Amino acid sequence: MNLIKANGYKDLSRKAANVVSAQVILKPSSVLGLATGSTPVGTYEQLIEWYKKGDIDFSRVVSLNLDEYCGLPPEDTQSYRYFMNDHFFSHINIKPENTHVPNGLAQDLEAECIRYENLIADLGGIDLQVLGIGHNGHIGFNEPGNSFEKATHIVELNETTLQANARFFKNIDEVPKKAITMGIKSIMQSRKILLIANGPDKEEIIHKAIFGPVTPDVPASILQFHPDLTVVCSFE
Ligand code: F6R
User: Fold this and answer.
1) Nearest alpha carbon to residue 66 among 215, 225, 195
2) Ligand 1 center to residue 168 CA distance, Å?
3) Mean pLDDT score of the chain, rounded to an integer?
4) Could you list the active site residues?
5) What is the C-alpha to C-alpha distance for residues 35 and 208, in angstroms, rounded to an integer?
6) What number does CATH give the domain 2-62+72-193+220-229?
7) What residues line ligand 1, using a CB cutoff of 6 Å?
Protein backbone atom coordinates (compact mmCIF):
# COMPACT_ATOMS: atom_id res chain seq x y z
CA MET A 1 0.00 0.00 0.00
CA ASN A 2 1.09 3.49 -0.82
CA LEU A 3 -0.08 5.96 1.84
CA ILE A 4 0.26 9.62 0.87
CA LYS A 5 -0.55 12.32 3.37
CA ALA A 6 -1.57 15.56 1.68
CA ASN A 7 -1.57 19.08 3.11
CA GLY A 8 -5.13 20.19 2.69
CA TYR A 9 -7.79 19.60 0.07
CA LYS A 10 -6.06 21.38 -2.81
CA ASP A 11 -2.90 19.34 -2.32
CA LEU A 12 -4.93 16.12 -1.98
CA SER A 13 -6.78 16.91 -5.21
CA ARG A 14 -3.56 17.63 -7.08
CA LYS A 15 -1.90 14.45 -5.84
CA ALA A 16 -4.95 12.33 -6.70
CA ALA A 17 -5.20 13.98 -10.13
CA ASN A 18 -1.53 13.17 -10.68
CA VAL A 19 -2.23 9.48 -10.13
CA VAL A 20 -5.17 9.54 -12.58
CA SER A 21 -3.19 11.60 -15.06
CA ALA A 22 -0.20 9.23 -14.94
CA GLN A 23 -2.57 6.33 -15.63
CA VAL A 24 -4.07 8.05 -18.69
CA ILE A 25 -0.70 9.21 -20.03
CA LEU A 26 0.82 5.73 -19.68
CA LYS A 27 -2.28 4.02 -21.13
CA PRO A 28 -4.41 6.42 -23.21
CA SER A 29 -7.16 3.80 -23.58
CA SER A 30 -7.46 3.33 -19.81
CA VAL A 31 -10.67 2.13 -18.23
CA LEU A 32 -11.20 4.45 -15.25
CA GLY A 33 -13.55 3.55 -12.42
CA LEU A 34 -14.93 6.80 -11.04
CA ALA A 35 -16.70 7.98 -7.91
CA THR A 36 -19.05 10.84 -7.09
CA GLY A 37 -19.36 12.65 -3.73
CA SER A 38 -17.63 15.76 -2.50
CA THR A 39 -14.10 14.33 -2.19
CA PRO A 40 -13.24 13.79 -5.89
CA VAL A 41 -14.63 17.16 -7.06
CA GLY A 42 -11.23 18.87 -6.66
CA THR A 43 -9.51 15.98 -8.43
CA TYR A 44 -11.85 16.36 -11.40
CA GLU A 45 -11.29 20.13 -11.39
CA GLN A 46 -7.54 19.63 -11.49
CA LEU A 47 -7.81 17.10 -14.32
CA ILE A 48 -10.03 19.53 -16.27
CA GLU A 49 -7.42 22.25 -15.82
CA TRP A 50 -4.64 19.99 -17.10
CA TYR A 51 -6.85 18.84 -19.99
CA LYS A 52 -7.43 22.49 -20.98
CA LYS A 53 -3.70 23.12 -20.91
CA GLY A 54 -3.25 20.21 -23.31
CA ASP A 55 -1.54 17.93 -20.80
CA ILE A 56 -4.05 15.05 -20.80
CA ASP A 57 -6.11 13.52 -23.58
CA PHE A 58 -9.26 11.62 -22.62
CA SER A 59 -10.34 10.79 -26.19
CA ARG A 60 -9.64 7.07 -25.78
CA VAL A 61 -10.52 6.77 -22.10
CA VAL A 62 -13.51 4.72 -21.01
CA SER A 63 -15.16 5.35 -17.66
CA LEU A 64 -17.33 3.23 -15.41
CA ASN A 65 -18.95 4.84 -12.39
CA LEU A 66 -19.26 2.99 -9.15
CA ASP A 67 -22.89 3.59 -8.40
CA GLU A 68 -26.18 5.30 -9.10
CA TYR A 69 -29.41 5.92 -7.20
CA CYS A 70 -32.44 3.94 -8.31
CA GLY A 71 -35.31 5.99 -9.64
CA LEU A 72 -33.53 9.22 -10.57
CA PRO A 73 -33.38 10.13 -14.27
CA PRO A 74 -30.03 11.36 -15.70
CA GLU A 75 -31.35 14.92 -15.89
CA ASP A 76 -32.14 14.97 -12.17
CA THR A 77 -29.47 17.16 -10.59
CA GLN A 78 -29.05 14.64 -7.76
CA SER A 79 -28.39 11.67 -10.04
CA TYR A 80 -24.82 10.50 -10.25
CA ARG A 81 -24.98 10.66 -14.07
CA TYR A 82 -25.82 14.35 -13.79
CA PHE A 83 -23.01 14.86 -11.27
CA MET A 84 -20.43 13.25 -13.55
CA ASN A 85 -21.51 15.19 -16.64
CA ASP A 86 -21.58 18.40 -14.66
CA HIS A 87 -18.32 18.03 -12.72
CA PHE A 88 -16.19 16.20 -15.24
CA PHE A 89 -17.35 14.71 -18.53
CA SER A 90 -18.76 17.86 -20.14
CA HIS A 91 -15.44 19.67 -19.57
CA ILE A 92 -13.08 17.13 -21.15
CA ASN A 93 -12.84 15.29 -24.47
CA ILE A 94 -14.05 11.89 -23.24
CA LYS A 95 -16.58 10.47 -25.71
CA PRO A 96 -20.05 10.51 -24.09
CA GLU A 97 -20.64 6.95 -25.34
CA ASN A 98 -17.51 5.86 -23.45
CA THR A 99 -18.89 7.05 -20.11
CA HIS A 100 -20.87 4.45 -18.20
CA VAL A 101 -23.00 4.85 -15.08
CA PRO A 102 -25.36 2.13 -13.85
CA ASN A 103 -28.92 2.72 -15.09
CA GLY A 104 -31.00 3.35 -11.98
CA LEU A 105 -34.13 3.59 -14.10
CA ALA A 106 -33.84 0.08 -15.56
CA GLN A 107 -37.14 -1.82 -15.47
CA ASP A 108 -35.32 -4.93 -14.37
CA LEU A 109 -32.70 -3.83 -11.85
CA GLU A 110 -31.28 -7.32 -11.37
CA ALA A 111 -30.71 -7.59 -15.14
CA GLU A 112 -29.06 -4.15 -15.05
CA CYS A 113 -26.60 -5.39 -12.42
CA ILE A 114 -25.66 -8.34 -14.63
CA ARG A 115 -25.38 -6.07 -17.70
CA TYR A 116 -23.06 -3.70 -15.80
CA GLU A 117 -20.88 -6.49 -14.50
CA ASN A 118 -20.61 -7.95 -18.03
CA LEU A 119 -19.75 -4.50 -19.34
CA ILE A 120 -16.82 -4.22 -16.92
CA ALA A 121 -15.56 -7.61 -18.14
CA ASP A 122 -16.13 -6.78 -21.84
CA LEU A 123 -14.13 -3.59 -21.43
CA GLY A 124 -11.24 -5.66 -20.11
CA GLY A 125 -11.65 -4.72 -16.44
CA ILE A 126 -10.90 -1.47 -14.64
CA ASP A 127 -7.35 -0.14 -14.83
CA LEU A 128 -7.69 2.43 -12.03
CA GLN A 129 -10.61 2.71 -9.63
CA VAL A 130 -11.06 5.99 -7.75
CA LEU A 131 -12.84 5.60 -4.40
CA GLY A 132 -14.11 7.88 -1.67
CA ILE A 133 -14.99 6.49 1.74
CA GLY A 134 -18.10 6.96 3.86
CA HIS A 135 -17.94 7.70 7.59
CA ASN A 136 -19.09 4.15 8.21
CA GLY A 137 -16.38 2.74 5.93
CA HIS A 138 -18.59 2.22 2.90
CA ILE A 139 -17.05 2.22 -0.57
CA GLY A 140 -19.44 2.69 -3.45
CA PHE A 141 -22.70 1.85 -1.70
CA ASN A 142 -21.29 -1.25 -0.05
CA GLU A 143 -22.54 -0.74 3.46
CA PRO A 144 -21.17 -2.33 6.66
CA GLY A 145 -22.17 -5.94 7.09
CA ASN A 146 -22.50 -6.64 3.37
CA SER A 147 -20.53 -9.57 2.06
CA PHE A 148 -17.16 -9.05 0.41
CA GLU A 149 -18.24 -11.49 -2.29
CA LYS A 150 -20.77 -9.38 -4.14
CA ALA A 151 -20.45 -8.14 -7.70
CA THR A 152 -22.69 -5.29 -8.94
CA HIS A 153 -25.92 -5.41 -6.94
CA ILE A 154 -28.88 -3.46 -5.56
CA VAL A 155 -28.60 -2.04 -2.04
CA GLU A 156 -31.05 -0.59 0.43
CA LEU A 157 -29.27 2.46 1.87
CA ASN A 158 -28.86 2.47 5.62
CA GLU A 159 -29.69 5.32 7.96
CA THR A 160 -26.13 6.70 8.22
CA THR A 161 -25.79 6.94 4.46
CA LEU A 162 -29.27 8.43 4.01
CA GLN A 163 -28.40 11.08 6.56
CA ALA A 164 -24.99 11.80 5.04
CA ASN A 165 -26.54 12.17 1.57
CA ALA A 166 -29.49 14.26 2.77
CA ARG A 167 -27.26 17.37 2.60
CA PHE A 168 -27.60 17.22 -1.19
CA PHE A 169 -31.42 17.00 -1.13
CA LYS A 170 -34.18 19.30 0.17
CA ASN A 171 -34.89 16.86 2.97
CA ILE A 172 -34.05 13.30 3.96
CA ASP A 173 -37.32 11.92 2.55
CA GLU A 174 -36.18 12.86 -0.94
CA VAL A 175 -33.02 10.73 -0.74
CA PRO A 176 -33.62 7.59 -2.80
CA LYS A 177 -33.68 4.49 -0.60
CA LYS A 178 -32.10 2.16 -3.11
CA ALA A 179 -29.04 2.24 -5.31
CA ILE A 180 -27.09 0.09 -7.75
CA THR A 181 -23.46 -0.32 -6.80
CA MET A 182 -20.43 -2.19 -7.96
CA GLY A 183 -19.76 -4.77 -5.29
CA ILE A 184 -16.59 -5.28 -3.32
CA LYS A 185 -15.74 -8.13 -5.66
CA SER A 186 -16.00 -5.85 -8.72
CA ILE A 187 -13.94 -3.15 -7.00
CA MET A 188 -11.23 -5.56 -5.84
CA GLN A 189 -10.78 -6.84 -9.40
CA SER A 190 -9.57 -3.38 -10.52
CA ARG A 191 -5.89 -3.42 -11.38
CA LYS A 192 -5.17 -0.29 -9.30
CA ILE A 193 -7.15 1.49 -6.62
CA LEU A 194 -6.88 5.12 -5.54
CA LEU A 195 -8.69 5.84 -2.25
CA ILE A 196 -9.10 9.50 -1.34
CA ALA A 197 -10.30 10.94 1.95
CA ASN A 198 -10.48 14.53 3.10
CA GLY A 199 -11.17 16.29 6.39
CA PRO A 200 -10.78 15.60 10.11
CA ASP A 201 -14.05 13.67 10.13
CA LYS A 202 -12.49 11.00 7.87
CA GLU A 203 -9.39 10.37 9.99
CA GLU A 204 -10.88 7.75 12.29
CA ILE A 205 -12.46 5.69 9.53
CA ILE A 206 -9.33 5.81 7.36
CA HIS A 207 -7.30 4.61 10.32
CA LYS A 208 -9.74 1.73 10.93
CA ALA A 209 -9.90 0.83 7.24
CA ILE A 210 -6.15 0.79 6.70
CA PHE A 211 -4.77 -0.41 10.00
CA GLY A 212 -7.72 -2.16 11.64
CA PRO A 213 -8.96 -5.72 11.22
CA VAL A 214 -10.32 -6.67 7.80
CA THR A 215 -14.03 -7.11 8.40
CA PRO A 216 -17.29 -6.60 6.49
CA ASP A 217 -18.21 -4.18 9.31
CA VAL A 218 -15.69 -1.79 7.73
CA PRO A 219 -16.15 -2.48 4.01
CA ALA A 220 -13.07 -0.43 2.99
CA SER A 221 -10.84 -2.61 5.18
CA ILE A 222 -10.81 -5.24 2.41
CA LEU A 223 -8.64 -2.82 0.42
CA GLN A 224 -5.72 -3.88 2.66
CA PHE A 225 -5.67 -7.06 0.55
CA HIS A 226 -5.49 -5.21 -2.76
CA PRO A 227 -2.06 -5.57 -4.39
CA ASP A 228 -1.94 -2.02 -5.78
CA LEU A 229 -3.64 0.42 -3.44
CA THR A 230 -2.78 4.11 -3.14
CA VAL A 231 -4.39 6.15 -0.37
CA VAL A 232 -4.23 9.93 -0.57
CA CYS A 233 -5.64 11.66 2.47
CA SER A 234 -5.68 14.99 4.23
CA PHE A 235 -7.18 15.41 7.68
CA GLU A 236 -6.82 19.19 7.93
C1 F6R B 1 -19.77 7.87 -4.50
C2 F6R B 1 -19.59 6.78 -3.56
C3 F6R B 1 -19.52 6.97 -2.08
C4 F6R B 1 -18.65 8.14 -1.65
C5 F6R B 1 -18.60 8.24 -0.14
C6 F6R B 1 -17.82 9.45 0.32
O7 F6R B 1 -19.84 7.40 -5.83
O8 F6R B 1 -19.55 5.70 -4.02
O9 F6R B 1 -19.01 5.78 -1.52
O10 F6R B 1 -17.36 7.97 -2.16
O11 F6R B 1 -19.90 8.32 0.38
O12 F6R B 1 -18.50 10.61 -0.07
P13 F6R B 1 -17.89 12.06 0.12
O14 F6R B 1 -16.74 12.15 -0.85
O15 F6R B 1 -19.01 12.99 -0.27
O16 F6R B 1 -17.47 12.18 1.53
Assistant:
1) 195
2) 12
3) 96
4) 67, 136, 138, 143
5) 21
6) 3.40.50.1360
7) 35-39, 66-67, 132-134, 138-140
> Closest Cα to atom 3, ligand 1: which residue?
140
Q: What are the residue boundaries of the structural domains of the chain, listed by start? A: 2-62+72-193+220-229
pLDDT at 171: 87
- DSSP letters of 71-117? S--TTSTTSHHHHHHHHTGGGS---GGGEE---TT-SSHHHHHHHHH
Name residue 68's amino acid: E
Mutate to test the pocket of ligand 1, among 39, 68, 187, 203 (most ligand atoms within 8 A of CB): 39
Banded pLDDT at 186 (limits 50, 70, 90) = very high
Select from 45, 66, 84 the residue to mutate for testing ligand 1; criterion: most ligand atoms less than 8 Å from CB. Answer: 66
Angle value at C-alpha 102, between 15 and 194, nearest 5 degrees: 20
**Ligand 1 centroid – CA 197 distance (Å):** 9
Q: Give 161 or 60, the one with higher predicted confidence.
A: 60
pLDDT tens across 104-141, in order? 999 999 999 999 999 999 999 999 999 999 999 999 99
**Residue 219 confidence (pLDDT):** 97
